[in-house]
Amino acid sequence: MITIFTIPSLAGVFSAIGQWKERGSGTYIKYVLRTWIKEVKSIVPNLIEGSIIGLIVIMIKAFEGNIFVSTLVLVWGLLTTLVVIANAYLKGLNKDDDLTQFIIQHGGQLLVSTILFVIMIALNGYLKLAFLILICSISFSALVTVNLLNKKSSYRKL
Question: How many CB atoms lie within 10 A of CB 147?
Fold first, then answer.
């Protein structure tokens, strides 16, 4: 499910937000579906990312009693989520940047974005509002991510 729906649709959300920010308006569902269809065809990278996420979930359940190992697994999960978000951002906005260099250059913004993604999804999970996950949690977090990563650094000359 993660491989087929979640990872490709995340790139679709970034694509829709990119089109909206570029043109000022647009059909959200149209861009999400168009990018989802394009990204679902690249099954191998999606399968690798989905398998790693699934392994993290299994490890969280398996090491519930061990605080040290659980903490390591949660940090690994957070970093994996950061990589998935960065990859979806680059794919959704059709950027040809190297993923590793992109993560190194925008590490702080990506970490803030990842924490926001996790908080919003956990909030929807806690409130039992699963139908709002794509509309509110993912879209809002993706909008904040696009705004964070597209900020131009401005230095004041003295």
Answer: 13
Q: Tell me if 68 is assigned to some domain.
A: yes
DSSP symbols for 45-110: HHHHHHHHHHHHHHHHHHTTT-HHHHHHHHHHHHHHHHHHHHHHHHHHTT----HHHHHHHTHHHH
pLDDT digit string (tens) for 59-79? 999 998 899 999 999 999 999
Instruction: Locate 89 and state its tokens.
Output: 């951002």
Number of domains within the chain: 1
The answer to whether the CB of 51 falls within 8 A of the CB of 80 is no
Enumerate residues 6+ apart whose C-beta is below 8 A from 39. 7, 8, 11, 12, 46, 91
Query: Is the pTM value of this prediction over 0.90?
Result: no
Q: Average pLDDT for residues 87-100, to the nearest whole number? A: 90
Which one-letter DSSP state was computed for residue 14? H
C-alpha to C-alpha distance for 11 and 157, rounded to whole angstroms: 38
Q: Is residue 122 part of a domain?
A: yes
CA distance 64 to 120: 23
**Residue pLDDT, tens place only, 114-158:** 999 999 888 887 887 766 766 777 888 888 888 888 875 443 333
